[in-house]
Fold this sequence. Notes:
Layout: H1 16-25, H2 29-42, E1 49-53, E2 56-60, H3 81-93, E3 96-97, H4 98-105, H5 110-124, E4 127-129, E5 141-144, H6 146-165
Antiparallel strand pairs: 1-2, 3-5, 4-5
Helix pairs in contact: 1-2, 3-5
Amino acid sequence: MPEQQNIEYKTSWHDDYFKWICGFxxxxxxxxxxxxxxxCREANLPEPQFEEHSGGMxxxxxxxxxxxxxxxxxxxxxVVLSVEVLLRILVETGEMGNAAIRNxxxxxxxxxxxxxxxxxxxxxxxxxxxxxxxxNSRLQKYRxxxxxxxxxxxxxxxxxxxxxxx
Length: 166
């Protein structure tokens, strides 16, 4: 490529590094490529791509990736709808056994109710066992905890606020 050929940079490239790198390309190409690579490394920029294009050389320079702040994790994961349904049932009826919960939900599979409704609610501390020493007892029932009641109160306030703001 002839030494006198210039590489133009777009006017939208206000970044000084790009202007500086383009200036290197205008130098003798023997050392210009090395200088471009060195300048990119020094500026922590991605390495450019060099391609032969229509009998000449195409140099593709990349802008630095914008630094995005880390996404904050929610303070608490959202409560699953199935757990919320269970809490609403328990607030209406009080203590209930597995069979009564399945009946109220219209479900038949005991394992499904335990995995999708009971275990997540227990893990969140929203419900508790009436006989904690015997989790597999046929007399076992489940009831709301204070945390479960507070969650429903908070959820009710938020729902009322949402209705008023519409």
